């Protein structure tokens, strides 16, 4: 089952937020995340808040769009009551789970509710995740007509036995079909890859990179497989049924990805993300929604277990779809808990997240001890010396491989 919610203060039943959330709001972007928690099968490595039909008896997927719209209406009221200045949504992201298990018309209705309640900024980025087998040409066309601009396809691997280990059920050939159909519908395309699956070889990973690049997507995300405690995969490894993850192989695969993607014209802008270079350096093809998470902007998360951040207040919803529906039916907020971030916590989070960006972290955010560490990080080949002279901490390729260790040194 998905991991537990964090411990913090209880959230008020009406979802109300303190008036402080409006401070500086005009200088921050506002986005909306909609978490669709349904999947056909539970992949053995997955620790996300997702549910298969057998796990949510009595909960109808067909009711979800109306529930999400009810939360959006509550969000609009809460923000208005807090004196939050009206701001259009600059990004909207449908994640999960598998959002495209719902009819495309349901996704369109939810997006229409965002536009009705908040409006959309000119050129807003509107993304949905999709599995290669969970959408078709007609559905993609419906999404385009509704205002979607981008689809993120869960490719994961091009090698059938690697997909089988991950318990991904899609036909690899459908990735090519979906990319072509998305392009025909006028959507930008991102492909998600996973490397380091137990039993995956270097040649398997190269085959997946080549297959992804053959599609020439606008954007590629490549994530190292993390074995989360409590997942089926963790139990299989503990029992010796599959080999453990090899950290050295992870590093080799990451280096291979960066070299191959750079050679093909993609630029890294976050440790696990690359955008196809354009005249603006690829900026127009980066995920603007994810950037909001990495840079501490405002977003409201809709759906079971979804997290939100508004003006330094972080809150999260109850996890189970039945409990989520019950709260909204009773006219209550689905929020389960929240915390107000103090200045030091926000500074630490900026160091944690912005260090991972290609533009780097302003050295001014570091305490004196952290600034003194920069020289040692340069000597160890982890931080770019020219960027450091300009007042920014930018990771080298070796630094990206050891990003967590770099952050610990900057903060200790």
Automatic annotation (TrEMBL):
Domain Radical SAM core: 24-267
Keywords, sorted A to Z: 4Fe-4S, Chaperone, Cytoplasm, Heme, Iron, Iron-sulfur, Metal-binding, Oxidoreductase, S-adenosyl-L-methionine
Location(s) in or outside the cell: Cytoplasm
GO-annotated cellular components: cytoplasm
GO MF entry, a single one: metal ion binding
CDD domains on file: Radical_SAM
InterPro entries: Coproporphyrinogen-III_oxidase, Elp3/MiaA/NifB-like_rSAM, HemW-like, rSAM, rSAM_sf
GO process annotations (BP): porphyrin-containing compound biosynthetic process
Chain residue ranges for the region called Disordered: 1-20
Biased composition (Low complexity): 1-19
Main function: Probably acts as a heme chaperone, transferring heme to an unknown acceptor. Binds one molecule of heme per monomer, possibly covalently. Binds 1 [4Fe-4S] cluster. The cluster is coordinated with 3 cysteines and an exchangeable S-adenosyl-L-methionine.
NCBIfam families given in the database record: hemN_rel
Family the UniProt entry places it in: Belongs to the anaerobic coproporphyrinogen-III oxidase family. HemW subfamily.
Protein name (Swiss-Prot/TrEMBL): Heme chaperone HemW
Record organism: Microcella alkalica
């Amino acid at each position: 089952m998905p991991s537990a919610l964090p411990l913090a203060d209880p959230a008020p039943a009406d979802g109300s937020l303190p008036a402080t959330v409006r401070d500086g709001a005009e200088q921050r972007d506002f986005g909306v995340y909609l978490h669709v928690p349904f999947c056909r099968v539970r992949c053995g490595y997955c620790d996300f808040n997702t549910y298969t039909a057998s796990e949510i008896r009595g909960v109808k997927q067909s009711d979800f769009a109306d529930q999400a719209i009810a939360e959006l209406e509550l969000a609009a009221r809460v923000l208005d009551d807090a004196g939050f200045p009206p701001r259009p949504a600059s990004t909207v992201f449908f994640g999960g789970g598998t959002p495209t298990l719902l009819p495309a018309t349901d996704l369109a209705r939810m997006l229409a509710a965002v536009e009705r309640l908040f409006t959309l900024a000119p050129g807003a980025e509107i993304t949905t995740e999709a599995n290669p087998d969970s959408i078709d040409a007609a559905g993609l066309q419906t999404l385009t007509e509704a205002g979607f601009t981008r689809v993120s396809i869960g490719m994961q691997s091009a090698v059938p036995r690697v997909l089988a280990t991950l318990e991904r059920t899609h036909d690899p050939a459908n990735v090519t079909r979906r990319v072509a159909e998305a392009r025909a519908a006028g959507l930008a395309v991102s492909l998600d890859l996973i490397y380091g699956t137990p039993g995956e070889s270097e040649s398997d990973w190269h085959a997946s990179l080549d297959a992804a690049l053959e599609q020439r997507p606008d954007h590629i995300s490549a994530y190292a497989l993390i074995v989360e405690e409590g997942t089926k995969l963790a139990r299989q490894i503990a029992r010796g049924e599959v080999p453990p993850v090899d950290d050295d192989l992870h590093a080799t695969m990451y280096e291979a990805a960066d070299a191959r993607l750079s050679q093909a014209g993609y630029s890294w802008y976050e440790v696990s993300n690359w955008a196809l270079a354009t005249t603006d350096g690829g900026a127009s093809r980066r995920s603007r929604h994810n950037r909001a998470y990495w840079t501490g902007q405002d977003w409201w998360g809709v759906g079971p277990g979804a997290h939100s951040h508004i003006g330094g207040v972080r809150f999260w919803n109850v996890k189970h779809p039945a409990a989520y529906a019950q709260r909204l039916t009773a006219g209550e907020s689905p929020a389960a808990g929240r915390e107000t971030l103090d200045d030091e916590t926000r500074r630490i989070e900026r160091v944690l997240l912005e260090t991972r960006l290609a533009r780097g972290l302003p050295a001014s955010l570091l305490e004196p001890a952290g600034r003194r560490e920069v020289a040692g990080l340069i000597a160890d080949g982890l931080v770019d010396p020219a960027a450091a002279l300009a007042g920014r901490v930018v990771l080298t390729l070796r630094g990206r491989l050891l990003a967590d260790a770099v952050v610990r040194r900057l903060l200790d």
